[in-house]
Design brief:
By secondary structure, the protein is mainly alpha-helical. It is built from 11 helices and 2 strands. A two-stranded antiparallel ribbon has the order 1-2. Helix 1 (2-32) packs antiparallel against helix 10 (235-250) and helix 2 packs antiparallel against helix 3. The longest helix has 31 residues, at 2-32.
């Protein structure tokens, strides 16, 4: 019974990490039609923000609160200066965001001196429930992920600004004819997606040592999650991240770990092959 509970908690914790990382990527891809190859580096910048705060003597909580704000500003500036020029050319957008990500990653690598840095958990230790021990920080990540999903869904589905964002996605020309500034909405959407990536990086960095490649390790799985869930919906990337995260954390319990990661891709690509539209094709917000 103990192993089953530990497996279930590990699955839930890793799924939460994946959903946090994929959520911002999925929103940008679904709402703007752009695959942001710099998303992993946005996660890195969120983690690096926490490192800067802690190394300057500030609380880790201050870094976690600052990370999404910093990344929202970074995302807004990048969208205004660079990304907006790529809306009509998605392939160029992928190459452009990849180049941006490369610059960010190598700059942080130089700042870190190529070293790994450990970040303390703001809430460390474990608590016992029904005779089982659970990591406090992983529970914080799970609860935060649930709150972020609920808040994001409510924003997109139940607010007038969310309605404008969805309207601009469905028919930009009609939205502009109705007096909606699609340019501002795209900028806000990109900044929002970057902020979510920053928050994800800030929350997961205590679990994984900070290095310049902390975002890259999740990037391919994140894109696979978006493809698996389906582009164009809010729920699709979340479900895709849950599926990929569950397989990535669960397969090492079934097969030898060296085969687990390749199997995740084989299974996911097989699903995409037979269902190229993803898990969800209807029920847009």
């Amino acid at each position: 019974m103990g192993d089953e509970v530990k497996l279930a908690f590990d699955l839930l914790a890793f799924i939460s990490v994946m959903v946090l990382i994929v959520l911002g990527l999925g929103i940008i891809a679904s709402m703007m039609g752009i695959f942001n190859f710099a998303h992993g580096e946005f996660v890195l910048l969120g983690a690096y923000t926490v490192y800067l705060f802690q190394s300057s003597g500030w609380s880790g909580w201050a870094g976690i609160l600052a990370a999404p704000v910093v990344l929202a500003v970074v995302g807004l500036v990048l969208e205004r200066l660079v990304i907006r020029r790529f809306y009509a050319a998605p392939i160029i957008a992928m190459l452009g965001t990849y180049a941006i990500g490369l610059i960010i990653r190598e700059t942080v690598r130089a700042l870190l001196g190529g070293q790994y840095q450990s970040i303390d958990e703001p809430l460390s230790g474990v608590f016992t429930l029904l005779g089982f021990n659970f990591s406090v920080w992983r529970c914080v990540i799970v609860l935060t992920t649930i709150c972020i999903i609920a808040a994001t869904w409510l924003f997109l589905a139940r607010t007038s600004l969310g309605l404008q964002v969805r309207g601009a996605l469905e028919n930009p020309n009609l939205a502009r004819a109705c007096g909606i500034s699609t340019s501002k909405l795209y900028a806000m959407t990109f900044a929002f997606g970057a902020a979510l990536a920053g928050l994800a990086g800030a929350l997961i960095v205590p679990l994984y040592q900070l290095s310049a490649d902390i975002g890259t390790r999740f990037l391919v799985q994140a894109f696979l999650s978006v493809m698996l869930g389906g582009v164009g919906t809010f729920e699709g990337p979340v479900l895709g991240a849950a599926a990929v995260g569950g397989m990535a954390a669960g397969l090492p319990w079934i097969v030898i770990p060296v085969l687990a990661d390749p199997l995740v891709f084989v299974i996911a690509l097989a699903i995409v092959k037979f269902r190229p539209q993803g898990f969800i094709t209807q029920g847009r917000l």
